[in-house]
Hints:
single chain; alpha/beta; P2CMN_synthase_LarB; PurE_dom; Nickel pincer cofactor biosynthesis protein LarB
Amino acid sequence: MDLRKVLEDLASGKISVEEALRRIRLFSIEYIENVIRFDVGRELRRDVPEIVFGEGKSVENLEKILVSVVPRSGRVIVSRLTNEQIAYLENAKFEDFEIFINKRGRIAVVKKKDFDIPKYDCRVGVVAAGTADIGVAEEAKVVVEQMGCETVSIYDVGVAGFHRVLEALKILKERDVDVAIVVAGMEGALPSVVASLIDVPVIGVPTSVGYGAGGEGLAALYSMLQACPLGLAVVNIDNGVNAGVVAGLIGRRISLYKQKCVSVERT
């Protein structure tokens, strides 16, 4: 795509602003040494932040991505960080970038110092069944917050102590969350319980916590997929990133709906 031609057509009135935006969103790709083809238009096109999967990438390639993309997109989220990548980011010296690292979630945000995260009127509950599930929950939490929603985190509330589940549900109700992410390993029962007792969408995230038959998250995944309560959707094993993105998109739409309702009331 010739960006100059799009801008010239826009300036001459041949195309509308909406058409120019559509063309730019559709073809925005960054080529980095014929090794990486990065979709720098993802956030513009889908309202989803730029997210890089860290595993399998060398520190050198990660640095190339950050140096090339952050100045254009404003920020990059790096998920599934390796220990080597965490050490690199902890010691990296970027003059114009800020780096936030969540070691437990193995996720980082690298952004320009003047980049402002958008804020929306939405709240997302992030619930983890056990302490071993917190890493995936933290991954989801970072993504949700980068998408502009407030999070309400409640950890270690698995069904082994059912009174803790009831306490967590009370908090979610009191904080009036718009959607809940529920992370669980082992038999993966918690999302079903939460979905049966709360009136908002629930996103179940099975984790690879477990042992024996159905270990590595399979038992939790199958349990959630076979769940009886309606309103429960399930992402893949350990996929906190996708759970965070889905919750953030739901939250944003709810926020826009609230704004429209306020505008109608004022008119």
